[in-house]
Amino acid sequence: MAVVLREFPEAYLTAEYLRGVERLVDHLEDQHQRPVRLLPFCPQDERFCAALDVSRRVPMDVHWWNPRRVQQILASATRVVSVGRLHPLVFAANVGTPADFIEPLPGHPSWPATTKAQRWCEATGQPYAPSIDAFLGGTMDDAPRRARAAVFTPADEARWQAMVDAVRGDLIRAAERRGFAP
């Protein structure tokens, strides 16, 4: 299990978020019966994770400077949960590992929802949760579909669909290489 926690300004860090991360790690370990490892995607994520209490009990794999190594880690993970960062979803899709996206600061006026991640999840079928609580409670909403409809022009839609088709093709080929039929 790999968990990616996107950094954000310390001023936005709340006790609720910290409790949510602890509950998320506990839930994943209980549900999957596997240890969770933090996987920062950049130096800022690494510093952010190291400052959290959860980093005292959850090991951290620090390889953000080496995309090939990060993909190896994701390929060996049973699942990837990204709290606030899009690229772990893309990397996980590339290696055929299931991935979920969770908004880190739902409703925060200075940290709006990640529409890129919402659109990606809508297009690829990867689960999107508007908050840690929604993820833990199994409550997913249709925000990705609403966000996509609100901001996409026909030209955007064509470019997006071409990218999604390419990724789906890559996913099918990766699954076939692993012995799974689509």
Describe, in plain words, how this protein is organized in 3D.
The protein is an alpha/beta fold and 182 residues long. The protein has a single domain (2-177), classed as 3-Layer(aba) Sandwich (Rossmann fold), CATH 3.40.50. 52% of the residues lie in helices and 9% in strands. The protein has helices at residues 15-32, 43-51, 67-76, 87-95, 115-124, 132-137, 143-151, 154-177; strands at 2-5, 37-38, 80-83, 99-102, 128-129. Strands 2-1-3-4-5 form a five-stranded parallel beta sheet. Strand 4, helix 5 (115-124) and strand 5 (128-129) form a beta-alpha-beta unit. The longest helix has 24 residues, at 154-177. It is globular, with a radius of gyration of 16 Å. Residues 142-151 have low confidence and may be disordered.
State the end-to-end distance. Answer: 24 Å
How much of the sequence is in beta strands?
5-15%
Return the average pLDDT rounded to an integer: 84
Sequence of secondary-structure elements: EHEHHEHEHEHHH
Quick one: how many beta strands?
5
- Derived from helix and strand composition plus strand pairing, the structural class reads alpha/beta
The CATH architecture can be given as 3-Layer(aba) Sandwich
Give, in spatial order, the strands making up the sheet with the most strands.
2-1-3-4-5
Summarize the structure.
With 182 residues, the chain is α/β, with parallel strands linked by helices. It has eight helices and five strands. 52% of the residues lie in helices and 9% in strands.
Question: Notable features of this structure?
Answer:
182 residues; alpha/beta; Rossmann fold; 8 helices; 52% helix
